[in-house]
Specification:
Distance between the termini: 44 Å
Number of helices: 3
Structural class: alpha+beta
Low-confidence stretches: none
Radius of gyration: 17 Å
Strand order of the largest sheet: 1-6-9-8
EC number: 3.5.4.13
Number of strands: 11
Mean pLDDT: 91
Helix content: 10-25%
Enzyme class: hydrolase
Shape: globular
CATH superfamily: Deoxyuridine triphosphatase (dUTPase)
Largest sheet: 4 strands, antiparallel
Number of domains: 1
CATH topology: Deoxyuridine 5'-Triphosphate Nucleotidohydrolase, Chain A
CATH architecture: Distorted Sandwich
GO molecular function, one term: dCTP deaminase activity
Order of helices and strands: HEEEEEEEHEEEEH
Organism: Streptomyces roseoverticillatus
Strand content: 25-35%
Protein name: dCTP deaminase
């Protein structure tokens, strides 16, 4: 079951759902709009290596925005910190942003119960596109979970700002065993 807008508001107010800051104007019939934060990270190596940490450079978005370039992956973040120990969150790009040719979260929309923090956004434009801090870029839906719950305690817990991949950390136990 998906939470309706009024239930999202009720859950945010009674603590079952954390959205900080919470703005009732961002509540939709069955989702909550999230805004683009102030920083973008870009990988600086010509080849990204899943077995190693990859260097990034961080860009700060100002009032004039920033032009995203096709063929580049930008890691953004939500302005809001969002999480819940009760509901399963899914984040998708807003249709208005998709109509501008920006792919948001096309491969990793599902969040874990128990994650709390700013969400890292994987942004890829089809055409050059100027984005601005604070623009509504995505929407999060919340689903009711059934069954026992193991709260998320992973490597991205409490994230603030864009987080590069830490896939290499998943390989550490395997590498040590070989």
């Amino acid at each position: 079951m998906i939470l309706t807008g009024p239930e999202i508001t009720a859950a945010a107010l009674d603590g079952r759902l954390r959205i900080d800051p919470f703005d009732p104007e961002q509540v939709n019939p069955n989702s909550y709009n999230v805004r683009l934060g102030t920083r973008l990270a870009v990988y600086t190596s010509p080849v990204i290596d899943a077995h190693r940490p990859n260097p990034t450079t961080t860009l700060t978005l100002g009032g004039d925005g920033y032009v995203l370039t096709p063929g580049e992956l930008y890691l953004g973040h939500t302005f809001e910190q969002v999480g819940s120990n009760h509901f399963v969150p899914l984040l998708f790009g807003r249709s208005s942003v998709g109509r501008l040719g920006l792919f948001v979260e096309i491969t990793a929309p599902i969040g874990d119960i128990g994650f709390h923090g700013q969400w890292t956004l994987m942004l890829t434009p089809v055409r050059p596109l100027r984005v601005y801090p604070g623009m509504e870029i995505g929407q999060i839906m919340f689903f009711v979970a059934t069954g026992p719950v193991d709260l998320y305690a992973g490597k991205y817990q409490g994230s603030l700002g864009p987080q590069p991949s830490r896939a290499w950390q998943d390989l550490l136990p395997q590498a040590a065993a070989s």
